[in-house]
Automatic annotation (TrEMBL):
Enzyme Commission code: 2.7.13.3
Keywords assigned: ATP-binding, Kinase, Membrane, Nucleotide-binding, Phosphoprotein, Signal, Transferase, Transmembrane, Transmembrane helix
Enzyme type, top EC level: transferase
Key word Nucleotide-binding present: yes
One example GO MF annotation: protein histidine kinase activity
Residues passing through the membrane, by range: 404-423
Pfam family, one: HATPase_c
Name assigned to this protein: histidine kinase
Signal sequence segment: 1-23
Residue span(s) of domain Histidine kinase: 449-640
Reaction(s) this enzyme catalyzes, per UniProt: ATP + protein L-histidine = ADP + protein N-phospho-L-histidine
UniProt cross-references to PROSITE patterns, sorted A to Z: HIS_KIN (PS50109)
Originating organism: Aquirufa echingensis
Length: 640
């Protein structure tokens, strides 16, 4: 009998402990559905506030839907009752629930509401609200609203750097410099060190320095063990497992960008399994995993992960991940030879990339305007200080020269008028100069955007021709399409060079010719047993205007294409020599092959390419001649 009672007592104690652990378990999927106490706004707030202040782990991806529903209902009732206290207590957790799901359109109104009612918000939440409010503005590309929030955070001493703002504006070098200069490096074993290494790796990835980014992520992966050793039982094991998976997945993405696919699939799978409570990370890694499966030809697996990521992406605002997703779908359908679908996603990708680029350019302009206003404000402050010094000196003179008071006052008045006129003129000049600088910057951005759009349109035409070429069986038609593609690529390279540099009218001739010839070599010589050797002998200081280099590029395209098609036959090693030099105002271009061709045969059998070379040479005002050397030598002389 005593044993039976003891058994019952132990069973009740076990149930009580289980219920307590169940109610406090942040990751229990049925937590909010079965425990009706969470329907009470005061109980919900006390529980949220207590757990959030310890480690912030109040909910998971498995129960976030129920939590969101309950909080939305509590917010609606508080609004109906016009109870500001209950509205604050519902808005704080609800805004953070939306934020952690990247639902910025839902969360932003609540953060703005909390910002407006700062005095009613508990002080220990203020830092988190400012961080997330700025992140939401940046996520929605409202950089003009994010900058004042960042300045407020700096003023309050919460942060010292502008690196995220620079990164959002595409100024990655400035972001890296600002991050390294002002971001404090946490010590080994400190949990914050994981965040530091993750963000540093992001910037290296933005700069496309994938080797350095991978080294940083590998350092972060090793640091997790140090944090686990130092933290002991302070941090949940599942949270550190998430960081292990995160850094593994980031290393895998760097490997893929560098062309190394051998180990990336298990690394990405580990990251996805560890990211069950972070769907945003899960989405990006599932798209990367789909690309890895595409690489090895496992099409069904690739489609599964792309579609699953697309479902998780609903209602979220993550531009880089959306670009990855559209690119993955385009590659998938292109691999299946479903060119209509591939073209659709390529167009969608290009349109969204243009939108992102437009936002980046707009953000750069806003950031530049903010810097100019700051400089103007400082200049006006210096003027005011100078005026105070002038009046102070005048006051001292009155004490020493009381008899000349009227004269001194008149002098001060006259001098003040002169200073006022002088400062006003300077202020107007400064304002006009700033306006001119802004207008110049805007025109430069618009012109670069124009070159970028022309290049993109030419690339679309190039891709359409590529689709047509794949469907064409006739060799003569294929050769004709290839020649058209090369001429389009020749023009696109000019616009690409102008878009990537700060030059608005001039292009460096040596780099342009090298890029063009290497492209043609890939087009014509990639399957040869004896690849053609290109010998460049080019003066590196020659720069040509946009109009002339486009015409010259078409001439070079025809000459080099003919050389690859006709000059290099048999088993002998082919050599193509390209020389460019400038003598005074004359530029001499020489393209020579070591093939068996003869000048007489070329002149007798003049094709479209040769006629095009002569017509374009006349348009440039250039002298074009053919010479018999080891093979055929094309000589073009023109004036800069």
């Amino acid at each position: 009998m005593k044993l039976s009672c003891l058994y019952k007592a132990l069973l009740c104690l076990l149930l009580l402990v289980s219920f307590r652990s169940w109610s406090d378990d942040s990751y229990n999927s049925d937590k909010f559905k079965r425990d009706l106490r969470y329907q009470n706004p005061q109980f919900m707030w006390k529980t949220w506030d207590r757990i959030f202040r310890v480690d912030g782990s109040f909910f998971s991806n498995s129960n976030v839907t129920d939590l969101e529903r309950i909080l939305e209902s509590q917010w609606s009732r508080a609004v109906q009752q016009q109870n500001l206290d209950l509205m604050i207590k519902a808005a704080i957790p609800l805004s953070m629930v939306y934020h952690n799901q990247a639902k910025f359109s839902h969360g932003l109104p609540f953060f703005e509401f909390l910002f407006k009612h700062q005095k009613q918000v508990p002080a220990y939440y203020w830092r988190h609200i400012l961080i997330k409010l700025e992140e939401e503005y940046r996520g929605k590309n409202e950089i003009e609203k994010a900058i004042p929030i960042r300045r407020l955070r700096i003023k309050l001493g919460y942060i010292k750097t502008f690196w995220e703002i620079y990164r959002e504006c595409g100024l990655f070098e400035d972001a890296l410099r600002d991050f390294k200069q002002f971001q404090t490096v946490p010590p080994r074993g400190d949990y914050r060190r994981l965040f530091y290494l993750q963000r540093l790796g992001w910037i290296y990835t933005d700069l496309k320095n994938y080797k350095k980014a991978r080294e940083t992520y590998a350092q972060g992966y090793n640091e997790v063990a140090e944090v686990r050793k130092a933290a002991k039982a302070v941090y949940l094991p599942r949270e550190l497992r998430y960081w292990e998976g995160l850094f593994k997945g980031l290393m895998a993405q760097c490997d893929m960008e560098m062309g190394n696919y051998s180990q990336v699939i298990p690394m990405l799978q580990f990251d996805i399994r560890a990211s069950i409570d972070n769907p945003d990370n899960q989405i990006g890694k599932e798209i990367s995993l789909a690309r890895a499966y595409l690489h090895i030809g496992r099409m069904e697996s690739a489609k599964y992960y792309m579609d699953h990521a697309r479902i998780l992406m609903a209602e979220k605002v993550i531009p880089p991940v959306k670009l990855m997703m559209l690119g993955a779908y385009a590659d998938y359908y292109a691999t299946l030879n479903r060119y209509d679908s591939a073209y659709y996603f390529n167009r969608a990708l290009q349109a969204y990339q243009d939108t992102v680029n437009a936002h980046i350019n707009r953000n750069k302009s806003i950031l530049l305007l903010g810097q100019l206003e700051l400089v103007k404000h400082r200049a006006e402050s210096m003027k005011s200080l100078h005026q105070v010094e002038v009046y102070s000196e005048a006051s001292k003179l009155q004490d020493f020269k009381i008899k000349l008071l009227s004269i001194i006052l008149g002098t001060i008045l006259f001098g003040s008028i002169l200073l006022y006129v002088n400062f006003r003129q300077k202020g107007l000049l400064t304002q006009n100069r700033i306006q001119l600088d802004l207008e110049h910057e805007r025109n430069a951005v618009l012109l670069k955007e124009l070159h970028h759009r022309v290049k993109n349109n030419l690339q679309v035409i190039y891709s359409l021709l590529n689709l047509q070429k794949r469907r064409t069986k006739n060799e003569e038609s294929i050769d004709l399409i290839t020649a058209l593609q090369n001429r389009i690529q020749t023009i696109a390279l000019v616009h690409n060079n102008l878009f990537q540099t700060d030059e608005m009218e001039y292009v460096a001739l040596d780099s342009y010719v090298r890029t063009l010839v290497e492209h043609l070599q890939q087009m014509y010589a990639q399957d040869e047993l004896n690849p053609v050797t290109i010998d460049f002998k080019m003066q590196d200081s020659i720069r040509l205007r946009f109009e002339r280099i486009g015409t010259l590029g078409l001439i070079i395209n025809e000459i080099v294409s003919n050389a690859f098609k006709y000059a290099f036959v048999g088993d002998s090693a082919g050599v193509l020599t390209i020389e460019i030099e400038q003598k005074d105002t004359q530029v001499i271009l020489s393209i020579e092959d070591n093939g068996p061709g003869r000048v007489e045969e070329i002149n007798q059998n003049s094709n479209l390419g040769m006629r095009l070379i002569r017509i374009l040479s006349e348009q440039m005002g250039a002298t074009y001649t053919l010479h018999q050397s080891q093979g055929i030598k094309h000589l073009l002389t023109f004036t800069i």
